[in-house]
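Reviewer 2 asked us to include a model.

Predict the structure of this chain.
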Amino acid sequence: MTTLLQALIEGRQQLASESAELEARVLLAHVLRVSKTHTYTWPEQELTAAQWISYRALVDRRRFGEPIAYLVGEREFYGLPLAVDARVLIPRPETELLVDVALEMSSQTPLRVLDLGCGSGAIACAIAHNRPEWSVHGVDVSHEALAVAQHNKQALKIGNLQLSQSDWFSSLGETQFDLIVSNPPYVEPDSVWLQQGDVRFEPPLALTAKNAGMSDLEHIIAGASLFLSTSGWLWLEHGFEQAGAVRECLQQSGFQQIQSRQDLQGYERVTGGRWG
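Predicted model (structure tokens):
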């Protein structure tokens, strides 16, 4: 029989990357349904034949580039464990900045928040979880993505989040919001970045946009004023080279107090403005 230590050595050798040991440990813990700490504490524990087969299969899939988050079916975002799979984009640490900015909003009355293109529900769940008095509405054009978001909402027991299908604003009627946030597709369809790492396995619908990656950002900015209350805010995540174009687009659309925020790497990652 194979011990945990032997399995980790085998996995590390097969993966042969800078993060091979950590990835092997994450996959092994997932197969055993234990914490990573357990794999350190009980290296002599033996795997069953079924566990060994499952572990080797996951290592092989990771060796060919499949994201760890999809293999284990989970990614932490803003301290929340979120279910993720190939139907949705994997939440990124830099997107937590958008949640930070949203939670900075202050008001004497509970805010009405819209998350456009909510995907797995990461942003919407994080905001709703941290502001239970607010009313949060997440929309996505993909029914498959909404199914994942609905699962996360239920698993996290979030009661102040509504989810619905909509192609951006198309199904929202005359609903008004005090805050609109979005992490829309903003990568050029022919970008070489799409051929690297995890993004090779992620849904293109959630990644790419025409017009140098700006088409969805421009569409949201152009339509947001009809759904924002007086003095409502729009905040958008974008590529680190798109901040200037987003600020210009916001200005041309009549937004005020336009500003950009930097992520932990010092890149301008989120830009927003106030309406009215």
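The CA atoms of residues 91 and 196 lie 17 Å apart. Residues 4-64 form a domain with the Helicase, Ruva Protein; domain 3 fold (CATH 1.10.8.10). We have added this to the supplementary material.
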